Amino acid sequence: MTFAELSRQAENTVGATLRRLPPEIRPLAETVPVQFADVPADDVLDEGFEPDILGLFTGNPHGTELVHDNPAPPCILLYLENIWDFCEGDLPAFRAEVRLTYLHELGHYLGWDEDDLAARGLD
Questions:
Q1: pLDDT tens, 49-58?
Q2: What range does the domain containing 89 cover?
């Protein structure tokens, strides 16, 4: 599947997931842009992330002040080729993993740590 096709599938999945969020979370989620890339850029790998990472939240979590060493606005990155490979080319599994990865990264934006995410089934 091409990157354009994966992007279209991921955009539809993220949109559907966003529409199903609880009303108290949806407005916050709508403010966080979601970007799609095939694989992580070199600068992400240079920070110590594994090449097969599925997603990444960058920026500061909601409710925190911008810090000088991280002035970038919040953003969720989904690495579609990595997700596609992780799902072994299975489209329903790809959609499910895009949903899970999006929610996991959104949880980081909301300030949830790995234990909070695991408790919500988002690990």
A1: 999 999 999 9
A2: 3-59+73-116
